[in-house]
What we know:
By secondary structure, the chain is mostly helical. About 90% of the residues lie in helices and about 0% in strands. The protein contains 3 helices and no strands. Helix 1 (about 5-55) runs antiparallel to helix 2 and helix 2 (about 60-95) packs antiparallel against helix 3 (about 100-130). This is ABC3 transporter permease protein domain-containing protein. InterPro entries: ABC-4_Integral_Memb_Prot (IPR052536).
Amino acid sequence: MNINENTVLPGFIAWLICSCNLGLIFIMATGSIIMLKQLATAAENREQYILLTKLGVSLKAIRRSIYVQTGMTFLLPIILGMINAYFALYILNVWLNQLDLTFAYLIGLFYLLVYSIYCWLTARIYYRLIRPK
Length: 133
């Protein structure tokens, strides 16, 4: 069997597309799970937030605390994932002798963007759930 660039490149591209899709599915699943957990917590804590507004805490302070709380909840999984990806890319780079990782970093930034959108949407919906009407 003769292995040349014409047979390796299509296989690599198929593997790359499958890997990117699988990574995106995992990011979306993780974001959805964390989002649902946070929103369930918001529904449970709605009365406490209404009490805080009655006690004089401004809606701006409540909104800021919600964004900080949501950010912290989303922060740990993404930090662990980034550390894991960094070491995996480092080992891959050592094994393959100076591999160009620009594309991998762009994919990582895209995943971070998707995850950040989940975090932002969660905080917005959380605030709308607890806001007094």
